[in-house]
Amino acid sequence: MHNDREEPERSSSWSPGRATMILVTGGTRTLGAHVVDQLVARGHAVRALSRKARPERAGGAEWALGDLVTGVGIDAAVAGVGTIIHCASATAKQGTTDAKQATCLIEAARKSGTPRLIYISIVGIDDVPMPYYKRKVLVERLIAGSRLPHTILRATQFHDLPTMLFRSQKRLPAMMVPRARIQPIEVREVAARLVELAENPVDGRAEDIGGPEETTIERLAEQYLAARASASGTGRARRKKIIVVPVPGRVGAAIDEGKLLCPANATGKGTYADYLAR
C-alpha cells in the first residue's frame, strides 16, 4: 500500500435500493465496455456515452450519443446522473484532446448538479515524462480542481496494450519491442475496481492497482509468439526474432527505474498467460 498518503475518506456505500444513473464515457472502448457490462450485471442504471451508434452488445444500458470535444450531446448525457466514470481517452496522436474532453465533461457536470466524477489514469505518469502522460497529469489536475466530488484511480498497463504492439508486427520477419519493465493487469479487474469505487467511493486518489507480476515486454512477446505457435500447430511464430530497442532519454531512464510499476499494489490476479489462454 502507499504509505506516503493518508487513507482516502470513504463516502456512503451503495445498496441495490439506491439506484442512481451512472454515466460511462468511452462506453464502447476496451475498458468502458467492461465497466458498462459489470454495472448492468450488478443492477445499476447505466448510461453509456459514445460517438458511435448503439451496438447490439449494449445490453441493458441506456445509450447517449455525444462528443466530448465539440460538446454536442454532453449536457443531455450528463443530465440526471449521480456518478460519471470517465473512461474516454484520446490517443497519443490527438494532442490536447484529453484536456478538452475533461473540461467539457466537468462543465456539463457542474450544470447538472454535483455528480461524482471517477477517472481512470495510469501508474507512473508523474515520473515518466512522455507527452501523453503529461496530458493525463493535466486531466487529473483539472478534475481535482473541478469542485466536484471525485475519485482518481491509477492502473498499470492493460494486457491489451503490448498485444496490440505484437499484432501490428505479425507480417514482419522480426518483432521490435521497447526495453521496458511493466506490470500488466487484466482489464476486467480494472473495470471491477471502478465499479467498486462507484458503489463505495473514496475521495481524491484511490490506491493504485497493478497486475500480479512484474515482467518485461520482451518476455511478453516470447509468451505471445509461443501461444501463436501453439495455436497454429507450427513453430514458425515461436522462431520469430525479437529485437529489444532501448527507450532513449529521461523516459527510458524512468522506465528502467521501475516508475511504471506499483509492486506494493499488485492486487490483480490475471496473468498475461491467462489472457492469452482465453
TrEMBL record:
- Protein name in UniProt: NAD(P)H-binding protein
Which residues belong to any copy of the NAD(P)-binding domain?
26-180
What is an example of a Pfam family matching this protein? NAD_binding_10
- Keywords of this entry: Photosynthesis, Photosystem II
SUPFAM superfamilies, A to Z: NAD(P)-binding Rossmann-fold domains (SSF51735)
Query: Domain of life, per the record?
Result: Bacteria
**Any keyword NADP?**
no
